[in-house]
Amino acid sequence: MNTIKIFSTTDTDRIIEMAWEDRTTFEAIEQQFGLKEKAVIELMRKEMKASSFRMWRRRTNGRSSKHAALRGEDVTRFKCSRQRSISQNKIRKRG
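Above: the chain sequence. Below: its structure as tokens.
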């Protein structure tokens, strides 16, 4: 069953950006966009080049910072305060 919702290009780019950020949890993506981890993975597979998707999965697989339950209690924000905003995501497939 296909669990991908229809999002605007801006929302899709933001979800991809959040998924790439080390400090942004899957729970934060679910809270903002209603996508569970499995749906985020499905969206990333659909929207990214195969090589970029494989690289992302290697980075996120087993990473404790991507899951709120595995993080320390002192971490309360979604991203680093020093992180600059990413615009015009270049990883997304050209449509």
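Residues 45 and 53 are 6 Å apart (CA to CA).
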